[in-house]
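Practice problem: predict the structure.
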Amino acid sequence: MRTANKYFILSVLVALAAMSATSLLAGQAPSSGDRLVVYGDLVYFLGPGKPGNCTLNNRFKRGDPVGFRMTAINPTTGKRDRDTQLVVHLTYGGKTLDLPMRDRQNAQAPEREFWVVKWIVPNDAPTGILRYSVTAKDSQGRTGEYKPFEVETSQLAIVE
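Answer:
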């Protein structure tokens, strides 16, 4: 009998702990499942049909067209919402530029399920690493952010 009572008390305590944990979790901030998954790359945006167009790169010279290509995925559905707004935040020369991206997909190119923005490296851009991030917000208010790896060779770099 004593062993049965111990197991009963133990099971009641475990149940209370589980209910208590559930009520604590209910008050937490949204889980990572509520955040958009944002990722992408950097390429040359030289123009359709030009050699080297859309070639991956992270080293650009002044005057080069930097292409930011990104996507934002709802982790619950695994799909993107074309109404999502993405913005590249590029810091250089002591200022931050906010570059709104546009949805690249259209009737002629339905496979292009990503957003783009082109930035021409200005003549006054300092050489070295330029920091950037990308934020996204979908039509349901979910948000996400992308930052490149904190490895210098992975960063956007302006070279001579």
